[in-house]
Amino acid sequence: MRSNAIFARLALFISTLLIPALTFAYEPEEKEHKANADTAVHRGEMGNGGEESAKFNPGEMIMDHIADEHGWHLWGHTTVPLPVILKTDKGFEFFSSGNLVDEHHNPQVYQGTHYAYALEHGHIKIVTDLGGGQFEVNEEASKHVLDFSITKNVVTLFVVVLILCLVMFSVAKAYKRNPGQAPRGLQSFIEPLVIFVRDDVARPSIGHKYEKFMPYLLTVFFFILIANLLGLVPIMPGGANFTGNIAVPLVLATITFVITLINSNGHYWRHIFAMPGVPVGVLVILTPIEILGVFLRPFVLMIRLFANISAGHIIALAFYSLIFTFAKGGESPVAGYGVSIVTVLFTVFMMFMELLVAFLQAYVFTLLSAIYFGSAVEEHHGDHDHAEDFDGKPNQHGPATINA
Question: Could you give the 3-state DSSP secondary structure of residue 80?
């Protein structure tokens, strides 16, 4: 009951933050100016595109919002600059991302130690000075630039890891300080989640070897959960589409894949290459499918997390874009004010849905990882057919059914 109350308060807090934050967190006109200025940089016409008025483009605004950035946009023309670290063929370059934009948040050229640089569609490119205030992107030289910058998603990664460490160390210290006592405060919220991962995810999916994988399963569960919840807070340090960036699910899925391969036994590989009891003719078709499935599993993990988190942000922003679309199309703010009532209600509803998805995707990723681990360490059923106890504990051969 107490955890349900905490969950309800968290949902109310996030949804309440959304409404006032929408007035300054999303700057569609400014994003449009930024896109126009990016195109101007590519043409070598610096300072022209960003000041021209243009029709509101929802697609440009949405894709710009969910993409990674070299600065952390707060409101209006206020942006927190982040460090830029570039590796070129002439050496490293270190400077602030604030040098790449002017006071109106439009891209501008910065003369570094080795080259001149400018932002084009969120990427730092080497530009050539054509004289007369005109510049051109040097595509050939830009191909050799390696970007190690501290971007918005990198900062989010540090924040998520910091929160995760603070929460877990705090809970661990509380258990040491009050051994054998009922959990209180943060413990009462974390303990049910830990027990849930242990009893409802790890044990049924892996079997008696579940303890070996618990550190990773708990880490990935709380890491994804904290990252998803932080992405719903529309003010710094939240609001980044962190788990919706394909690189993050890719790394997590790769770790799961590596752990599965390292812990796989001979029984697992016999089922992959030559499933027992299957005719040889069928194995010609089945074995390639099973081998392909080994690599499809981490791919499914990656796409599921990436697509669900990105889709939630896109849908919420699409609803919010209707306000500006109706207002511009009718050449009157009345239409925008009229549709804003329904739009904000739908956006708040989507935020509640994203809150559910934040927990659900952390659970699904952890569950699928545990299932993959269970299949890798599963022993031959004939080895421990009578090892099942009648107290409901899983038997010795992993995630098998309870013997009556």
Answer: strand
d(CA 267, CA 48): 66
C-alpha separations of 228 from 85, 239, 280, 354 in Å: 27, 10, 47, 9
53 Cβ neighbours under 8 A, 6+ residues apart:
none
Tell me how far apart the alpha carbons of residues 298 and 220 are, in angstroms, rounded to a whole number: 14
**263: nearest Cα among 299, 222, 217, 221:** 217
Domain limits, the chain: 28-54+69-150, 154-382
Q: Is the dihedral of CA 106, 321, 159, 69 positive or negative?
A: negative
Q: Which amino acid is at 130?
A: L
Task: Find out whether the peptide bond into 192 is cis, omega within 30 degrees of 0.
Answer: no
List phi, psi (to 5°) of 71.
-135, 160
**What would the pLDDT profile of 275-321 be if each residue is shown by its tens digit?**
777 787 888 888 888 888 889 999 999 999 999 888 888 888 888 77
The torsion of the CA quartet 11, 12, 13, 16, rounded to 10 degrees, works out to: 120
Side chain identity at residue 213, one-letter code = F
- Which amino acid belongs to residue 79? T
- Euclidean distance between CA atoms 216 and 11, whole angstroms: 27
Residue-wise DSSP of 111-158: E-SSSEEEEETTEEEEEEEEETTEEEE-HHHHTT-EE----HHHHHHH
Residues 6+ apart with CB under 8 A from 164: 219, 222, 223, 226
pLDDT, tens digit, 9 for 90 and up, residues 344-390: 888 888 888 888 999 999 999 999 999 999 888 887 665 444 444 43
Question: Which amino acid does the sequence have at 355?
Answer: L
